[in-house]
Write a structure and sequence with these properties.
Length: about 550
Amino acid sequence: MAFHDPSNDRPIEAAVPDPDWWRGAVIYQIYPRSFQDSNGDGVGDLSGIIHRMDYLKKLGVDAIWISPFFRSPMRDFGYDVSGFRDVDPLFGSIGDFEALIHRAHTLGIRVLIDLVINHTSSEHRWFRESRGSRDNSKADWYVWADPKPDGSPPNNWLSIFGGSAWEWESERMQYYLHNFLIEQPDLNFHNEEVQDELLNLVRYWLDKGVDGFRLDVVNFYFHDRELRDNPALEPEDRNANTAPAVNPYNFQDHLYSKTQPENLHFLKRLRDLLDSYPAITSVGEIGESQRGMETQAAYTSNGRLHMAYDFDFLANTFPTGTRIRAVLEKFDRIVTEGWACWAFSNHDTVRHASRWDLEEGQRKLYAAILMSLKGSVCLYQGEELGLTEAYVPYEDLRDPYGKRFWPRFKGRDGARTPMPWNTDHNGGFTDGKPWLPVAVEHVERAVSLQERDEGSVLRFYRAMLAFRKAHPSLVKGELEILRADDDGLSFLRDDGVERLFCAFNLTPREIEIELPEGEWSIEADAPFASVKTGATVTIQPWEAAYAVPAGI
């Protein structure tokens, strides 16, 4: 990777890359359709991301993760890929992507891309060939099965997007597996040729200069060869983290349709390839309600994935101090070799400001907590503005998931509406008609307005990210919980050089939190004001305190 000195724009070779740069990194997720439109067609694109790269540099993130921009019929808005090596013309060209990589690396920002290889679009040439007969060269590249004697699907597996996970194909007179949309047939990872082709795809993007991958639905890659029925779950065990509560997908324990042991071997093959390039990382999305942390532990041990994207704080459960302690202690107990990657929001969940009904001060407080935990951090675009979930009326809805389960589940469009850059028409996102409506309440939180407001959520995120970078213990240090209840949370971060005390007031009233033994000094560069009094620190409502041992 070559960086540029912005003072003279002459290329300078980077020092030996740090292979552990991802530990403690802050990764900013970009949903490209909604970030910045550069050509007036109403859809964000790669040129738009380049245009806003200085904003990301000023925010202080270490890396960006770009949701899919590959060639696609857009039934699932890029997560249905019809050309893995192509940029969809909607987003630009491969030249635009190369320019994006160059610009990001010039600014010292690394680039992760969304690797969607569990399935393809039904319009992919592989599937068009595979569905044509039972004896062509791609016949076994997808999961095909004969019907039961009565013509019904081969088993009871369900699709996350509703209904059976099997679709009849009259050309082959067989069913094919689709864990998501009918138009997203699952690849057959039991076929070594499929694995080899997908690893070649990974190599292609590594050669383009990407710094890592977010692996979409990584635990869905393999299915049970025997196609055994999934057992039912008791009502009290129907955890709704993987699918909305209205979806009968939650009624099953998905023992056989995903999270199969053969995946461990493939992930080792993938990691060996990643390790043949310098300083590459991977973060897996594990959609697993019943055995999520156990799967994380398996997938991040013995030289497999670098990190797994954790879902515990993407759930509806409010993160009280008690809840945060339980999640952290469970992670440490189960994921003994892995590294955490925490997030509060993403493109598939209700924005956490709405999901947890956070007041303005709480939005800053929980940002501070997130960026003080041990692990890497994923921020979702607009989170740094304190954006709430937008209401999208049914007539404007684009998400097939929302259309299927409306109105009990309104889909994911409310978290995907365009980024508000200013108070101009369409929030400065586009000169055309935006693909989703720009929320009026979001324009009131536009970047241009928050830039000028010292007390804004955006200014706070920048300050908190700068504080995190200034304190190595927050990036890679160990974490020891001291207090965790409904009122307060406190812990120590320690990297062997710096000890940092972190305390958070989870209430709308002033509280005192006890300091560890010894003399402590309040950190003046922290983005909160707090007062030390003897053995305690006084913290204002929805604020935090940071302290280091006195004299250091």
